[in-house]
Amino acid sequence: xxxxxxxxxxxxxxxxxxxxxxxxxxxxxxxxxxxxxxxxxxxxxxxxxxxxxxxxxxxxxxxxxxxxxxxxxxxxxxxxxxxxxxxxxxxxxxxxxxxxxxxxxxxxxxxxxxxxxxxxxxxxxxxxxxxxxxxxxxxxxxxxxxxxxxxxxxxxxxxxxxxxxxxxxxxxxxxxxxxxxxxxxxxxxxxxxxxxxxxxxxxxxxxxxxxxxxxxxxxxxxxxxxxxxxxxxxxxxxxxxxxxxxxxxxxxxxxxxxxxxxxxxxxxxxxxxxxxxxxxxxxxxxxxxxxxxxxxxxxxxxxxxxxxxxxxxxxxxxxxxxxxxxxxxxxxxxxxxxxxxxxxxxxxxxxxxxxxxxxxxxxxxxxxxxxxxxxxxxxxxxxxxxxxxxxxxxxxxxxxxxxxxxxxxxxxxxxxxxxxxxxxxxxxxxxxxxxxxxxxxxxxxxxxxxxxxxxxxxxxxxxxxxxxxxxxxxxxxxxxxxxxxxxxxxxxxxxxxxxxxxxxxxxxxxxxxxxxxxxxxxxxxxxxxxxxxxxxxxxxxxxxxxxxxxxxxxxxxxxxx
Length: 561
What we know:
Layout: H1 13-17, H2 24-34, H3 46-55, E1 60-64, H4 71-82, E2 86-90, H5 93-103, E3 109-110, H6 131-134, H7 146-155, E4 159-163, H8 164-174, E5 180-185, H9 191-199, E6 201-204, H10 205-210, H11 221-248, H12 253-270, E7 280-283, E8 287-291, H13 299-302, E9 307-314, H14 319-323, E10 330-334, E11 346-352, H15 361-378, E12 384-387, H16 391-400, E13 407-408, H17 413-424, E14 432-435, E15 451-454, H18 465-473, H19 475-490, E16 502-507, H20 510-516, H21 518-522, H22 525-529, E17 531-533, E18 545-546, H23 547-554
Parallel strand pairs: 1-9, 1-10, 2-4, 2-5, 3-4, 5-9, 11-16, 11-17, 12-14, 12-15, 13-14, 15-16
Antiparallel strand pairs: 6-8, 7-8, 17-18
């Protein structure tokens, strides 16, 4: 079941669709011919989305599709049916692996980063530490290097999957994945932070001091730009000299390490061409970091120009996220959830005020812990997740809960993966994950997660200077990020139509957030459809009130779609 080889008679449906609007039956017939058995049957609305994309005259299309819709199936179906060259871009390795598992039989090629391959020249090093990373011309680039061999296969393919960080580097530096028909950006709610990570300027104190060009003490934009202008020539000369020596001795590991460091320094200095007075300067122990306050204005230069069509996909994609990418003229497809709301209820219990402005944070944490324990006691034999938003709450629960024997947590990213793997390996115990970082990218179907608690509205930390500066410009962006993260967390509890899971939100400020930003919530209406309110102690019997009934009794909430 593979895609036929390219030939000069291939039809690009985008071009034809300018003259003809395709019906669902016509698109289905095309897919049956190209890839027989792509799906025994399509899920609800999947083919309709393929049709809308192909028939649209917009460059930009946003698709909000709740869990269970099958976004990846629509993406691959559209790429195959259209006949163009397409790339699916993911924000995480896990999602990229899922694309490959599901669609490699259809000819999907995936590209893995250099760290997954050994260097042919220096076999005990990975391709990420190879001389070519410094800029040396490698004899094995056209054959004999595992990294370049798999990359070359992907370059020649019409259907490719890769992560966003890899794509941004390749499209903007090598250009080999540029000028494609379509880029599908999955988990598009994370695109803003991925772009920020790509374009930020990171300057290492010791690296530049070693080259006799120490970073100035005056950390202003003007001072740093002047320093960059006077430094970039020196770094380039040093890099050129190292590359000349590497050409003669490519197995020299000391030269390779120096070359890679100089190349990174040179690339950082090149980035100063886009730095302006609106950028934020942050300091770490070993680095100075410059970040743009607003990321959207750089999307065209570094991402959008590389494709004729850009398609954003996510289970949580309010319009304001797309518009934050500086996209104005776009088609928006907002799909309903196919999951029964009765199988995925979300219950608000206003247990604690965990905002920084709380009068007595200690008392609020005690209230939270009492509620958490009452809910854990309600599910003594089931597995679940407690989303804490930060480690302070996680540590407090681990130290003060009466159910600590059931709780499993982590203190860093490496331990996080290990804890999740152990938790996922056994459906029969009653362990509960406690974490600030399982809101996205975690798949725990059926008995792996029957309930979850969201302790706090997941606002980004205002201790981050870039986030604070942007929030002061655009408060809707700040609120939308919190709403999106919360609804993403909600999506962890039910992963299929025959699955079920219950979510509790314990932050007393939820209803104020809904009232203030109702237009955003209306765009993720499947959350409100399942929302119930319980105002009494969770350890006691209580009647639940639907959100619709609650708002009628308590206050009017402005609504618009």
